Prior knowledge:
By secondary structure, the protein is α+β, with helices and mostly antiparallel strands. It contains 3 helices and 8 strands, in the order βαβββαβαβββ.
Amino acid sequence: MKLQLTHLRLLVSNYKDSFLFYRDLLKFDVDWGDENSGYAEFNAGHLKLGLFKQELMAQVVPRVDQPSYVVNRDRIVLIFAVDNVDEVYEQVKNSNAIVVTQPIDRQDWGIRTAHFRDPDGNLIEVYSNLGIVS
Length: 134
């Protein structure tokens, strides 16, 4: 199992202002998305910096384990590219780690994902491209 860190994704409550901050003030080039898309990726050198509306991520990875989701929303996701999402998922599951979502094809994202948490509760996403040609 080889993981390659590809993105840092900030889960933001004020998406539009955050987008404008990184694009206009910090001058990051936009690789995907715009100020109204709810998700964007900026070219930050060797890594992608992603912005995602917290509410949209909550639809994918709910925090039902917390008494008040609004207070306990995830703020960041570590994102790793892998060769085989299902293989990584099985290794994580078999180690009794905290599995959040099973592997699923996200056609609208063009990737297969699974989510789990590290021992401190930080959200981790593993993904592989679906290889869909548009």
